[in-house]
Amino acid sequence: MESEKKSDIILDFRKAIASIALLELSRKFDDMEEGQVLEICVQDKDTFADICKVLPKSSYEMNMVVEEDSVKRIKIKKIKKKEDNL
What we know:
With 86 residues, this protein is an alpha+beta fold. It has helices spanning 18-31, 45-54, and strands at 9-12, 37-42, 60-68, 71-78. The protein contains two helices and four strands.
């Protein structure tokens, strides 16, 4: 089995307020380069669902979701965004 790429950025949202965590996620994701991997730790299932709503669908791949002791570790790889046709 091919090993997973090491995370470039790790955000721990286990004790974070959801709205602030999502704002931080958006800012970090915008600053990421194509190909970088962001790892997010969450406990709240609603925060996990909100992550998928906040990030543009065409700009990431969710590579891994691992659950350990009620903590979800999500790895998200930034991919090239599709250019909008003008």
